[in-house]
Amino acid sequence: MTKMALGTHPFLLGFEQLERLVERNAKTGTDGYPPYNIEQTSDTSYRITLAIAGFGESDLSITVENNTLLIRGRQTDDAAGRVYLHRGIAARQFQRSFVLADGVDVGQATMENGLLHIDLTRAVPAKTVQTISIKKG
Fold first, then answer.
1. Count of structural domains within the chain
2. What percentage of residues in the chain have a pLDDT greater than 90?
3. Distance from the Cα of residue 65 to its chain's centroid
4. 71 burial level (CB within 10 Å; 0-12, 13-18, 19+)
5. Residue 56 is assigned to a structural domain of this protein
6. Residue 108, C-beta contacts closer than 8 angstroms, at least 6 positions apart
7. Rounded distance, CA 52 to CA 116, Å?
8. Kind of pairing, strands 115-122 and 94-99?
9. How far apart are CA 55 and CA 115, in angstroms?
10. Residue 55 lies in a domain
11. The domain containing residue 23 runs over which residues?
């Protein structure tokens, strides 16, 4: 029996790019930093929470491009003039990306106690029925 790729299944018309999208995003952000949660807050809303202790609002960038939510953090290294006996908290940059389905909108982002919360909402599509006429050939 031949194994069929998801994007090439005959019942999934128009989803050819899905497999490439999954593969591309599986390769990015694999180091686990920063840790994050994704929770469903209602039937049509979600919340992404990233643990970003030490980052300020000016250190963060949140953008949406081509249905991809991209969160970047960059801290400046202010070690000049400091003498560390132990340095376990490093200024570290990160990039996390999340693919958004069509109809998912990014709401507000808030910071609280070292956590960045990003709220998402999914528009419920209207149910449509389309009747296709058959022409005589």
1. 1
2. 53
3. 11
4. buried
5. yes
6. 118, 119
7. 7
8. unpaired
9. 9
10. yes
11. 9-78+86-122
* Residue 49 belongs to domain with CATH number: 2.60.40.790
Count of alpha carbons within 13 angstroms of residue 125, beta-carbon side: 7
Name the burial class of residue 29, with classes exposed (0-12), middle (13-18) and buried (19+) by CB atoms within 10 angstroms of its CB.
middle
Enumerate the β-bridge partners of residue 117.
49, 110
**What φ, ψ does residue 57 adopt, rounded to 5°?**
-60, -35
DSSP reduced 3-state for 19: helix
Highest mean pLDDT among 3-12, 30-39, 109-118, 128-137: 109-118
Output the pTM of the full model: 0.74
CB 42 within 8 A of CB 120: no
> 25: which 2 tokens?
């995003």
Distance CA 109, CA 69 (A): 12
Please check whether residue 50 lies inside any domain of the structure. Answer: yes
Q: Is residue 135 domain-resident?
A: no
| Sequence-ordered list of residues with C-beta below 8 angstroms from that of 37, at least 6 positions apart, any chain | 47, 48, 49
3-state secondary structure of 22: helix
Which pair of structure tokens corresponds to residue 41? 């807050």
Q: Which residue do the tokens 């686990």 mark?
A: 32
